[in-house]
Amino acid sequence: MESNQPVASAPKSGEDKTVAIVAYLSLIGFVVALIIHNQPGKKTNLGAFHLRQGLGIMLCSICMSIIMIIPFIGWVVGCVGYIMVLVMWVMGLISAVNGEMKQAPIMGASFQKWFAGTFN
User: Can you tell me whether residue 110 is helix, strand or coil?
Assistant: First the structure.
């Protein structure tokens, strides 16, 4: 019986998982994860994957903040957008804690495509 779920890889080290988790913890956490990831010999596929997901989620959050400036329609769209960002953030963080490379719902595949050349 085949499963359509993406194959999740186990973390190679605790530090690999740390980069993945910290990438979701605010802008400061993202910068710290980026610094750790860019040290010689510390780059991992899991870390790069979650850095791309975290970057995409942060950019979506910034876009929602800008949209919220528009009265009425912007508030509604921004609130719905923030709920979607929250869902992506929680699911991404859970994936990082479990050491899995699962894409965030809705936009995760796009984040991997758009930022494919980053963090490698």
Answer: helix
Assigned domain for 119 exists: no
Domain count, the chain: 1
Full residue range of the structural domain in which residue 66 is found:
14-114
Going residue by residue through the chain (120 aa), what tens digit of pLDDT does each one get?
A: 343 444 444 445 566 788 999 999 989 999 999 999 988 888 888 999 999 999 999 999 999 989 888 888 989 988 999 999 999 999 999 999 999 999 988 888 999 999 998 887
In a domain, 85, yes or no: yes
